[in-house]
Amino acid sequence: xxxxxxxxxxxxxxxxxxxxxxxxxxxxxxxxxxxxxxxxxxxxxxxxxxxxxxxxxxxxxxxxxxxxxxxxxxxxxxxxxxxxxxxxxxxxxxxxxxxxxxxxxxxxxxxxxxxxxxxxxxxxxxxxxxxxxxxxxxxxxxxxxxxxxxxxxxxxxxxxxxxxx
Length: 165
Hints:
This protein is an alpha+beta fold. It contains 3 helices and 8 strands. Strand 4 and strand 5 (107-115) form a beta hairpin.
């Protein structure tokens, strides 16, 4: 038996679905307090990381390169959470990302964390605003990116209207 048999040496986060957009993540010990419960602040990292993967998926490129190609950034204007359960080391959970609203300069993403049995761990709303990076001023959402956001929002609306069947 080698030292690594039975030891998961894989990534702590990976994409499991593009439609709907779902990222699976494994809780690392370093993300937890001494009692083995994820620090609240780490949920922000989970949400931002899933959002960045979502942007890369929409842009068809690594996130920062894709945004640079369209000359915009997406700092967070607002972030809110509702917590329902705690997470512990080595637990797997899924982060589902959906587009809730698309406005002129900003948009809302709903990110839901569920455990392996489908129980809701947390829900978050992330509201980025598009900016011109050098000037740090708000701009309209770039047309190509806006189009992809609206496309994903429409897919969500279609699923909701037919009951998910």
